[in-house]
Fold these 4 entries.
Entry 1:
Amino acid sequence: MANPYQALFNAPGSRAFVLAGMVARMPISMTGIGLITMLSQLQGGYALAGSVAATFALATAFCAPQVSRMVDRFGQGRVLPVSALVGGCALLLLLLCTRLQAPNWTLFVFAALAGCMPNMSAMVRARWTELYRGQPQLQTAYALESVLDEVCFIVGPPLSVGLCVVVFPEAGPLVALLMLAIGVSAFVLQRSTEPSVHPHDADQPGSVIGSGDIRLLMLLMGAMGAIVGVVDVVSVAFAQQQGQPAAASIVLSVYAIGSCLAGLAFGALKLSTPLPRLFLYGGLATALTTLPLLWAGNILGLSLTVFVAGLSFAPTLIVAMGLVERIVPPAKLTEGLTWLITGLSIGVAIGAAGSGWLVDAFGARSGFWLSIAAGAVVLGSAVQGYRRLTC
C-alpha cells in the first residue's frame, strides 16, 4: 500500500516549501517563552516578563488575521517579507532595549509590533490547498501540517529556554529571529508553488470573521485550545503535588504524541464520511475524553488519560481546516485558516489562566473542571455546526 504522505511530495516544490515553512513557523513557539526566560533572568521576576509575553501573544492574535487578509489580496511574495521585516525588527529592538536597560514601556511597544510576524502555518496550508483543492490528498496534507505544528510546539519552547539559560539570556529570541528571517526568505523565493491571488467577490466585502460559520469554528477552536492550556498548567501542578515535578514533561509529551499519532492515522485514511459528520464525531470525542481527566490519581493515570484526550485533537483540527476550505471563498482562504489558528491560541491563553486560578484556589485536579466545560463548548459548537452545514 502506497504511503499517502510520501505521495504528497510528488508535487514539484512541495518538499522545499514545507521545509522552509517549518523553519519559519518555529519563532511563534519560541518567542513568547523566550521572552519570559530572558526577562526573568535579567529583571529577576516574572511580572514584567509575563506581561511582555502576553502583549506579544495578544498582538499576534490581532495582527495575524490582518496580515493573512493582505496576503489573500496581494499575494504571499509581496506581504510576507514586509510582515516579517516589521515583526523581526521590532523583536530585535526589544532585545536591544532589554540589553541596554531601556524603560519598561519600550518593551511593551516593541512586543506589540513584534506581533506582526506572519502566521506561517496558514501560509503553508494555503499552498497545499492550491495544489490539491478538491482532492482527497488535501486531508492528508492538513494532517501533516497539524503534526508539524505539534512538533514545532514540542521542540521550540525547550530549545528557546535552553538557549537563554545556557548561552546568554537573549539567545532564545535571537535564534527565533534568525529562523524567521531564513525561513520566510526561503519560503517567498519559491514562486512556483505560491497560491494565485483570486479575485475578490464584491458581494462579500470585509473580513471572513463576519461569517457565522467561521465564528462557530473559531469558538470550537478556542474551546479546544482551552483544553490544551488546562493540560499544560494542571500537568505541572499535578506533578509537583505528587513530588515528581520532572514528570510534567512526560505527561505533556504523551499528550502531544497521542495527538500526532491520531493525526497521522486520520490523514492516511480515505474516508467517505462527509466533513460535517466527521466534525460532529470529533466534537463528541473531544467532550467525552475530557471526563477521565478528573479520575487521574497518579502520574501514570494522568499520562494515560491525557494520551486518550490527545487522540481527538488533531483529527478535529484537520476536519475544521477542511471545513474552512469548503466555506471560505478562495480569495479569503488564508485569512480563514488564520482565524482558526488565532482562536486556538486565544483558547490556550484562557485555559492556562483559568486553570491556574482554579489550581491555586482548589488544588491541582480542580483545573480539569475547566477542560470539561471547554469540552461541552466543543460539543455544542460541533452540534450547531453540523446543523448549519447540513441544512
Entry 2:
Amino acid sequence: MTTLFIKFFNMSITAGWLILAVLSLRIIFRKAPKAIRVVLWSLVGLRLVLPFSLESVLSLVPSTQTISIRPASDFAPAIPGSSPLTFSSEGVRPVINSGFHFINDAVNPVISKSMTPEASVDPIQVFLSVLSIVWLTVMIALLLYAVFTYARLRRKVSPALRLKENIWISDHVDTPFILGLIRPRIFLPSRMLDAEVEYVIAHEQAHIKRRDHLWKPLGFLLLTVY
C-alpha cells in the first residue's frame, strides 16, 4: 500500500506541474477556441490516469519521480570495525528528486539526518503507513458517498413519468439533469414552463452527445484517488 501511495503521490506532483502550465497557457491563449482548452486539460487527465510517463508530453516537467523510497543503508555510515556491508541503521528513507539540483542537495541531507531511527521501529515506515491508511480511508469514504448519493437520487426519481424517448418528468427535482451511464436519461422538473422545455432538452442532449455523463464520473473517480 505504501508503494502505491508513493506512486500516486508522484503522479499528482507531475500533474501539478502540468496544471500550472495549462493555467499559464490559458492566460496567453485566452481568446483561442475552447477546443484548445479541452486538449490541454486532456493532457492533465492523461497524466492522472496513465501509470507511466509520456516523455514527449512531460518534457517540460522537472521530474516524473519526485519522491522515491530507498533503503536507509544507502545513507547510513558503516559501523567502525565491522564489515563494509554492516550499517548503523535500517529501514527506508524518502529521496527527493525535484529536477532542481539545488533543492535536492539542500533537502536530502536534512531528511537523512533528521529521520534516522533510534529505535527498533523505523519512524519513516510508520509515517508512510499512516499516510497510506489515511489516503485509502478517505478514498473509500468518497466512493461510498458517491454510491449513496446516486442510489438516493435514483430512488427520488423512481416515480417519474416518461415524456418521450429518454426524457422523463419528475415532481421531485428542481433542476434538469442527466442520470445514467449506459442509457442516460434526461430528467426535467414538472414545474418547468412549456416555453423552456424545448431549449432545456436541446441543452441536455448536447451534454449527452459530448459524453459529459461519462466524463463527469471519471472526473469524480480521479478526485477520489487524488
Entry 3:
Amino acid sequence: MKAVAPELREAAIAIGASPIQATTLMIIPAATPAIVTGLVLAIARATGETAPLLFTALFSQYGFNGLWKPVASMSVLIYNFALSPYPNDQALAWTAALVVVTLILSISIAARFLTRDRF
C-alpha cells in the first residue's frame, strides 16, 4: 500500500474524505493489483518449492498436526510417489502434479480477473 502515490491520499483528503474513507475507497482499490500479485506469487512459491519445506517443516502424511510438528506438503508427496516402484503410486504422483498445476492456473486466472482494468 506504500507503493500508491501519496498524492492520491492527499487528494482524497483534500476533497473532504476522512482518512478511513481515503484508505478504503481510494488507496486499497489502487493497491489491489499489487496485493493480488503478491498473494499469487506467495501461493505459487509455497506450493512449488520443496527444499524450504523439507528444511523447515519436514514431512508428514497426516496433514497439519500442530505448529511444531511435521506437516504434509504436496510437492514432497509428488516426489515420494514418483520414486515409488508401484504404478498406482506413480499415477497418484501424476494426479497430484495435475492438481498443483490446476490450482496455480486457477489462482492466476482469478488474479487476472480481479486485477483487470474495468474502465
Entry 4:
Amino acid sequence: MSFSEKVLVCDQVDAVLNNTLQKNGLAVTYEPQITPEELAKKIGDYEIVIVRSRTIITKDLVEKATKCKILARVGVGLDNIDTDAAKAKNIRVINAVEGAMNAVAELVIGLMLAMARDIPRADRELRNNNWIKKELMGTELAGKYLGIVGLGNIGKRLARLARALNMNIIGFDVVPIDPEFAKEVGLMKADLDTLLQSADYVSLHVPLLDSTKNLINAQRMASMKKTARIINTSRGGTVDEIALYEALKSGNLGGAALDVFEKEPAIGNKLISLPNFIATPHIGAQTKEAQSLAATVIAEKVIQILRGVI
C-alpha cells in the first residue's frame, strides 16, 4: 500500500526517516532550516508535519495546518508542540519515546562518573600544564544511592545500568511502579522528599508540567545531603536554577550536572562559572544510534497510522 499524503520535515533528522516515508509513496519536503514565518505560509499544504527540537508548533501554526492529520516529533517530549490545540483539531500527535532511552541513560552515567572523579577539572588542569593528582581524590559509584525521579523508559534503563555498577536504587514516580521491575533492580520505593534526603545522586526523568516546574527547589535542596549531586537530562525548568546556583556556591550541595536549561541556548548561564557544576548542551539524545532509532520509530508510526493499524 502506498500513500499520497505530503510530508513536511522541519528539522534535521536521520535520513532513514525520509527514505522510509518516500519508499511508501509519501511526498517528503525536507526543510531543516525553515523559519517560523516560512512555516506559517507552508504548513497548510501538508497532511503530516515532522519536527525535532528546533521548531516550535504553536497554536497559531496548528490553526494554519488546515490539512494536517499527524504532528510528529522525532524525540521524547512534546513541549514544543501545542498538543491541546492539535487535539482540538483532531490531529494525531506522536513522538518517539523509545529512541532516546539508552542514549540519555548512558549520558547520566557519564555525568555521574565525571562528577565522582572530577574529570572535567582533571582534563582542564592538565591542558594548562598542571599535574594535580594529589588534589583529585574522587569517590566511587559502587555502593552509592541513586534516586531516580520518574521511572518511565529512560528511568528504568538508567536503573538497570546503575544496578550493573552496584549502585543502590531509590525510585519515585506519580504512577505505580512495576513490581517486577522493582524486584529486578532491587528498587526501594520512596516518596520524593525521602528520596531526596537519602540519595547520593538524584537524576530527574520527568516532563515539564505545572506540577513539575521547579520540582527541585530551594527547600528540597536544603533537605539533601551536602555531598549529594543532581543530574537533570529531562527538561529545563524542573530544577530551580537560581536555588541550585546558591546551593552549589555555598557548598550546601556537592555538585550538579545539567544537560537541559530553563532558557536554551544556555550561553552566559551563571551556573557554568561554578567549579562543582558540569554543563552539556542538551545532548541527551544526540547519538547516531538514538537519532536513527527515533527516525525509524516515527516513520513506522506514521505509516501505521495511515494504514489504520494504530
